Amino acid sequence: MKTNIRVRPDAKGRITLGELAKGISGFDVSLDAAGRIILEPYAEIPAREKWLFSNKMALKKVTKGLEDYTKGHVSKRGSFAQFIEKDVDE
């Protein structure tokens, strides 16, 4: 991706970032001492998933599991259907 592009504000002071903003929920905006505008991208997560990022041990285990899966280090454990509570989301 080209990292040095020029954008121009429209009559209302808006700029379009196009592909640079793909997958981004929003930006934190700040000005540095030289007057440069700094956009720090962030991605939001659903509130129901926030607990995972607040629990370092759980996040480490999930990250390790995803790494193992990516490397093909998985084993089949059969069905877990017997543990489903049928009326949880109903």
Topology (elements, then pairings):
Elements lengths: L25 E6 L5 E6 L7 H5 L1 H15 L20
Antiparallel strand pairs: 1-2
Please trace the helix and strand order, writing H or E for each element.
EEHH
Give the overall shape, derived from the CA principal axes: elongated
Beta percentage is 5-15%
Number of helices: 2
Mean pLDDT: 88
Count the strands? 2
Helix content: 10-25%
State the secondary-structure class: alpha+beta
Low-confidence stretches: none
Using only CA atoms, what is the Rg? Answer: 22 Å
The strand line-up of the biggest sheet is 1-2
How far the N terminus sits from the C terminus, by CA atoms, comes to 46 Å
Please summarize the sheet with the most strands: 2 strands, antiparallel
Oligomeric assembly: single chain
